[in-house]
């Protein structure tokens, strides 16, 4: 694709977030028709802005994490990054002119940077052996650009820390929104599960009604069997087999109900486990977020402390120069007091003393200007730090409020789950009652068979055998038809139970898949937090290096001050010797 780069979840942090130049990312997919229409525009932008702006594409099917992190819900979507932050977002088809204007605006707002490697021009030089060997003052000696660039760099670092804090706050808001979306998904799943439980309960109620109807049918059949047993002894054996079949059918249905109840309990336990995992992940995320905010505040305090140390060093240097100026002023007064003997002092020495005096006055003026500029910079940094701290306190209050809302919602979910458990217990009690009813029906059936045997013995003595043979044929045909109907109904019931079991297995598989996705999401967020922690550690190391550079510069200033003191003392001694002569 020429100048268009390819971004993935693996290189998104290094190529986009950590890039020093603006980056335009095109979120697309192979199946998206508008994405193919905007592709030539992206390639033209990449060719026109080669070298100044990085332009690339990200496949949302292959890299869903990066797309979800920035809320990409429809494609094509173009997001312009600068310094790791989102500058502008374009959704849908856009023309080249609008995109180019956004890119030009991002390039125009890029800072030119500041150099830190500037040093004082006389640091590290050896002091001259004699006062005559001192170099003449030059404009370079009065240049305060290195110190101003150094403190400008400190100011830029403070601004970068503020930008980093804002970007981290935006990331925390996006993560919070994703957590809320996850809660909504869990609520939808719980709502679907409750609907499924209601449907299953309706099916159980229908099965219970069907059992009652079958019990009534069994009672009717038992009355028919009792009438048949009154005419033939062999019908007693067939009635026993039929009762055994009905008993086996009841046992199978009871076993299937027990399996359904066990499956419901297992699904409820899985849902409780998923809720506990979500709560633990939320607590871990809140702890990590608080720790990162504390680290950012500590680094800001360290930067302010370095600025204060620099101001104290300049103040000490000013006091030393004032002391030296006082000594030179005393020497000048002594020379003025000895004005009659001034003709004996060499003119070159007098000119050198006057030149030293002018240098001291110029140094006072430069130090006053530096002190005022540094005082203004320190006040600005303090005001900005106070504003950021107030914003952090407000953010913490909002986070605490959101945590309370989440805790209240979790308690509501627990109450709903407890209510659901009580409903399941009520269903269990109803099933136990139904089981007792079946047991009573079995006892009544046994009593009916005993009464049928007694009635059969009485009928044998009253009716002849030929009349009973025709009746028994009709009874056998009726029993065969009834047996076929019962078998067909049993087969249909088994098919329904198979379908219900398949649905339970499918629901369990979906829950397992959701659980694995949630675990993968927690692992990805943990890795991202680890990467952020490493990046912050590297930045803290850079700040420590800058602090060491400040200490080295202060040491150089101390050496320079000592050299100036030695030179002034040497000049004073030479002036005294000349005056004595």
TrEMBL record:
Segments for region (Disordered):
123-144, 229-267
InterPro entries the record matches = Thioredoxin, Thioredoxin-like_sf, Thioredoxin_CS, Thioredoxin_domain
| Coiled-coil features, chain-numbered ranges | 382-451, 483-517
Q: What name appears for this protein in its UniProt entry?
A: Thioredoxin (Trx)
What spans are recorded as compositionally biased (Basic and acidic residues)?
248-266
Write down the species. Answer: Cladocopium goreaui
Give the organism's phylogenetic lineage. Answer: Eukaryota, Sar, Alveolata, Dinophyceae, Suessiales
Q: Where is the Thioredoxin domain?
A: 1-108
UniProt GO BP: cell redox homeostasis
Per UniProt, the keywords (alphabetical) are: Coiled coil, Disulfide bond, Electron transport, Redox-active center, Transport
Instruction: Name the residue ranges with Pro residues bias.
Output: 128-138
Pfam families membership = Thioredoxin
Q: Which PANTHER family match?
A: GEO12009P1 (PTHR45663:SF11)
Superkingdom as given in the UniProt entry: Eukaryota
Task: State the Gene Ontology terms under molecular function.
Answer: protein-disulfide reductase activity
Provide GO CC annotations from the record.
cytosol
């Amino acid at each position: 694709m020429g100048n268009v780069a390819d971004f993935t979840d693996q290189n998104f942090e290094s190529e986009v977030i950590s890039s020093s130049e603006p980056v335009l990312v095109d979120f697309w997919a192979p199946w998206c028709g508008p994405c193919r229409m905007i592709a030539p525009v992206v390639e033209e932008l990449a060719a026109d802005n080669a070298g100044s702006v990085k332009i690339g594409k990200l496949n949302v099917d292959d890299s869903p994490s990066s797309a979800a992190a920035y809320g990409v819900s429809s494609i094509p979507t173009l997001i312009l990054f600068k310094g790791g932050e989102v500058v502008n977002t374009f959704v849908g088809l856009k023309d080249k002119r609008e995109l180019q204007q956004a890119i030009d605006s991002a390039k125009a707002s890029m800072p030119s940077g500041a150099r830190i490697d500037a040093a004082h021009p006389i640091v590290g030089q050896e002091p001259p052996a004699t006062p005559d060997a001192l170099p003449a003052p030059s404009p370079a000696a009065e240049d305060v650009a290195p110190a101003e660039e150094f403190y400008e760099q400190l100011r830029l670092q403070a601004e970068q820390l503020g930008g980093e804090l804002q970007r981290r706050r935006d990331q925390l808001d996006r993560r919070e929104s994703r957590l809320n979306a996850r809660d909504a998904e869990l609520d939808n799943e719980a709502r679907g599960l409750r609907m499924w439980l209601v449907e299953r309960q309706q099916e159980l109620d229908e099965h219970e009604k069907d059992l009652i109807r079958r019990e009534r049918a069994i009672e009717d059949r038992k009355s028919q069997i009792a009438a048949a047993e009154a005419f033939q002894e062999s019908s007693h054996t067939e009635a026993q087999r039929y009762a055994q079949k009905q008993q086996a059918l009841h046992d199978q249905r009871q076993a299937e109900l027990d399996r359904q109840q066990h499956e419901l309990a297992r699904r409820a336990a899985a849902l409780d486990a998923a809720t506990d995992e979500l709560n633990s992940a939320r607590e871990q995320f809140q702890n990590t977020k608080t720790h990162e905010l504390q680290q950012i505040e500590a680094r800001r305090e360290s930067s302010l402390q370095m600025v204060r140390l620099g101001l104290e060093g300049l103040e000490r240097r000013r006091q030393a120069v004032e002391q030296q100026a006082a000594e030179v002023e005393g020497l000048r007064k002594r020379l003025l007091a000895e004005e009659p003997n001034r003709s004996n002092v060499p003119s070159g020495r007098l000119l050198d003393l006057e030149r030293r005096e002018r240098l001291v006055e110029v140094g006072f003026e430069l130090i006053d200007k530096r002190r005022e500029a540094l005082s203004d910079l320190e006040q600005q940094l303090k005001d900005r730090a106070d504003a950021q701290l107030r914003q952090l306190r407000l953010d913490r209050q909002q986070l605490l409020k959101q945590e309370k809302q989440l805790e209240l919602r979790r308690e509501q979910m627990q109450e709903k789950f407890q209510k659901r458990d009580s409903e399941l217990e009520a269903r269990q009690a109803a099933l136990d009652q139904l089981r007792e009813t079946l047991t009573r029906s079995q006892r009544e059936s046994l009593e009916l068979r005993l009464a049928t045997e007694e009635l059969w013995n009485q009928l044998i003595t009253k009716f002849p055998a030929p009349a009973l043979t025709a009746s028994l044929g009709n009874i056998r045909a009726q029993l065969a038809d009834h047996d076929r109907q019962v078998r067909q109904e049993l087969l249909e019931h088994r098919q329904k139970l198979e379908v219900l079991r398949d649905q339970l297995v499918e629901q369990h598989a979906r829950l397992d898949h959701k659980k694995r996705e949630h675990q993968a999401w927690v692992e990805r967020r943990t890795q991202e937090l680890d990467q952020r922690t490493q990046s912050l550690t590297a930045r803290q190391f850079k700040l420590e290096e800058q602090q060491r550079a400040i200490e080295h510069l202060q040491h150089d200033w101390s050496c320079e001050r000592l050299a100036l003191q030695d030179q002034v003392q040497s000049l004073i001694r030479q002036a005294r010797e000349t005056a004595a002569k």
